[in-house]
Amino acid sequence: DIQMTQSPSSLSASVGDRVTITCRASQDISNYLAWFQQKPGKAPKSLIYAASSLQDGVPSKFSGSGSGTDFTLTISSLQPEDFATYYCQQYSSYPLTFGGGTKVEIK
Amino acid sequence: EVQLVETGGGLVQPGGSLRLSCAASGFIVTNNYMNWVRQSPGKGLEWVSVIYSGGSTYYADSVKGRFTISRDTSKNTLYLQMNGLRGEDTAVYYCVKSHCTTISCLTFDSWGQGTLVTVSS
């Protein structure tokens, strides 16, 4: 199975900050990488697919990059509605696997 | 507008069975890859199963042989039949629609609100 490792597991940031979350795959997954946002008590929301493509309706403050084994999710200017947990996922091979999550909290 | 509504969760004893349903609207279930993903209380996300538009199915090792994914074209509904339930199957179960891009049809896009399954005596 492909292991997905996110870092950090949590971070504190202020409104307006630029935030970067890292996701590393245990083997080459090309760009079969997605990012999701989950708020407490809610279903996850799809943000990015193919490492850097925004899902419909997702604001451009979210961006993704990377290929192979190393990927990043960047939020350009953190807003109150962005405080949530973020997950990466690989869909290169079965079983599809998720990272452990990064909780973004208010400083 | 795409909508996914899961039902069928509840409390079940170890060894018991449950069938989850996911009623879809705004698209045709059989034209897309459809998935089940679960999340144990306070934990991360775990992919459970997928059914292809052509009908092929795949499962996580943790549920293989116990869970069965299926769909009903006339009802535009996805199902997850869960047998031999264990305590570690306790989770919120989400129905997730995938769409096809140039490189893959496993691109998750829309999620249901989830249904809670609790396995306990």
3D architecture notes:
The complex is a heterodimer of chains A (107) and B (121). With 107 residues, chain A is mostly beta strands. Helix content of chain A is 0%, strand content 50%. Chain A has strands at residues 4-7, 10-13, 19-25, 33-38, 45-49, 53-54, 62-67, 70-75, 85-90, 97-98, 102-106. In chain A, strands 2, 4, 5, 6, 9, 10 and 11 form a seven-stranded mixed sheet that branches. Chain A has a four-stranded antiparallel sheet with strand order 1-3-8-7, with no helix packed on it. In chain A, β5 (45-49) and β6 form a beta hairpin. By secondary structure, chain B is mainly beta. In chain B, 0% of the residues lie in helices and 52% in strands. Chain B has strands at 3-7, 10-12, 18-25, 34-39, 45-51, 57-59, 67-72, 77-82, 91-99, 107-111, 115-119. In chain B, the strands form two sheets. In chain B, strands 2, 4, 5, 6, 9, 10 and 11 form a seven-stranded mixed sheet that branches. In chain B, a hairpin with a 5-residue loop joins β5 and β6. Chain B is globular. The model of chain B has no long low-confidence stretch (mean pLDDT 97). Classes of the chains: A mainly beta (107), B mainly beta (121). Chain A binds chain B through residues 30-32, 34, 36, 42-46, 49-50, 53, 55-56, 87, 89, 91, 94-101, and chain B through 35, 44-47, 50, 58, 60-61, 94, 101, 103-104, 106-114.
